Amino acid sequence: MKITLKNVLLTAGALSFSSFTLSATDGRLGQESSAVVDVNLSVSPVVRIWGLEDFSFTTPANMQNDLQEEKAFCIYSNTRSGDYKLVASVHGKKDFELTNQQSAPGNKDSIPYSIGFKGADDEYRDLYIGEHYGSNVGAKNPSPTLECDTGIANANLKVLIPADNYIQAKEGEYNQTVTLTVTPN
Description:
Blueprint: E1 15-17, E2 41-43, E3 47-50, E4 67-77, E5 83-89, E6 97-100, E7 110-112, E8 114-118, E9 125-126, E10 132-136, E11 155-161, H1 163-166, E12 174-175, E13 179-184
Antiparallel strand pairs: 1-2, 3-4, 4-11, 5-10, 5-13, 6-7, 6-12, 8-9, 8-11
């Protein structure tokens, strides 16, 4: 199974300098002249999501066990509160469902699964495609220029494939690509 993250760094207009200022004053002609100019910087809210790796499972010898794995990753927000929204999307699907691409045409085998999300100060919550989940970066708001590692990770994703969902599955490779998008909140 492959989960792909969409890194979203909202930078359009994030940093802008005024090309003119309204409070600038011109100096007067003389042996010394001074002018006043203001320098303004407008910082827009930006976020970044990074550091999550793909999830990959193989069926165990004892096919009665659920398959589950957690991965830590980083989310940065420069908002004063550190709040952000996260939404999951899957191209052309309404549910988290692994599909066997090797199935006969028109007969796609599939395996439902679930994804849980946990922000810095949250408990795990089930993600649903298209729903927005508000969270906060918490005390760990990693610099967006650093590599994401366990020391600075402030979010977790958990994938669960119940045994009842895969025990009857036909052999083959099942996958789905999930996009996670964060926006300032």
